[in-house]
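Much of our argument rests on the idea that a fold can be written as discrete symbols. Part of our work consisted of pairing the sequence of a single chain with a tokenised description of its backbone. The amino acid sequence and the backbone structure tokens for this protein are reproduced below.
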Amino acid sequence: MKRQITTSHSTPIISLGLIILCVFSSVAGAANWSMYRSDPARSGVSPETIGPKLFLHWTYTPLHPPKPAWPMPSEELPRMHNDNAYHVVVADGYAYFGSCTTDKVTSIDVSDGRIRWEFFTEGPVRFAPAVDGGKVFVGSDDGYVYCLDSDDGSLVWRYRAGPTDEKVIGNGRMISLWPVRTGVLVDEGIVYFAAGIFPYEGLYICALKAEDGSVVWMNDTIGDRAHELEYGGISPHGYMLASEDVVYVPSGRAMPAAFDRQTGKFLFYASPGAKRGGTWALLDEDRLISGVDYSGEPHKVAYDARTGKQQGDAFAWFPGMDMTVTRDFSYIVMEQGIYAINRAAHAEAVKKVSQLTENRKAWQTELEALEKKLGSGDETELNRQIAELTKKINHANSEEKRLKGSSFQWRYPGMGLRSIVLAGDVVFTGGEGIVIGIDSKTGDEMWTNKIDGTAVALAASNGYLLVSSDKGPIYCFGKSEVAAAKEISSKMVQNPYPDDLLTQTYNAAAEKILAESQVRKGYALVLDCGEGRLAYELAKRTELEIVGLEKDP
């Protein structure tokens, strides 16, 4: 049985420079991981060394595993499934995360695993919150961005970008026609987000003042330009990024769109150039790197961050699934393991291989022309020239292979790895059933621990490593050894209601509704839901997805 209780304040209409870590002053302290992948560039880098040897301190196990909005694809890599875990951010020793199944935001004291507070929105929370200035900012499928007090979770303000509270059945849930599917990015006192996913219904790219939620600017015309943009326009979905001057909005299975950070003016829509794209994105100095899939293979494309001009494959020869970058090194997760790429050596190798490729093409053309002359001229001289060209081509092939092998510092072999972050001198990577710590300089394994599920998201802060599994659990590892790791979980209450005079009334009402409607699957709407007793009785007896509406939150 399934149950969804949604509060509603009004009756809705129902329809079926160096960017990484140092440019942004609002990243709250060197030890904080206050937004997804640490900062507005989504670098995945923390200056604080965690570990390297760690111990499990606590595990948070939710009642329900994550349920991504979109089904898994059959012929391509999951391009837009970064709501497949409860992604954690950490600020000042406290962890924060949302839930796409229970619609709530939770805060936990990292040091002891104590749940500090919980706040319910009115729809799935699919992306990690952002923490800034003692406030927690989070977007929901209910169409609102919420600002919460970080101490007690109380509501400071909320803002709806869409024109009405209109609701639809979307992705198996009751959501706003304009859900917030970009998460929330907060930097220098400004909150950035996008609402809406269908261009023809209207899209809203917004900047608000973090202090009070007032509008700085709003671009509400980009949806009108769907006819002139590739693939029918943008569809905001994924974690936004920001440089000093530009805000980037991931666009689901396609590539990001760019907007002026000061005015909201549309700048460009990064062209995939083929059947490739995805929500993963990262800013690397003056490059925007984005993409997940290219016809079933891992793929990352680099763009000029100011113009959107495509610059080719990012880190050629290393088609990674995830990566983190510094000025000197890039650490990339590939299907065969982790590669630490010396960026200067890689750039020089790419330049030399490019020249070799040009030479080889010229030599190959010359070779083919000589081979056509065989039998019509001086065979000895022709064979000598053919042998000389063949030797050059073979040497070029060998040199290219050598150059490709010389551009990485080390390789850590491992299959099934998915995520990566850098915490000081330690590279942490997560995969199927495991999380690993690796020396960033040598590639030596320093620590490993088993988990349930696949570690698809990592956060390193205040001496702790937090690991989010696609099965739902969140693991917290710390430097000190503890006697026993704490288990944090909620108990399933089979019946939260008393056995009183109303029990038979609700039982009879549910039986009569089902007898007359003959409906056991689909959706049910319960108006004036109250404490949910009728919804509960219907849920016990059916496979209905039940939405309860109640004016009093």
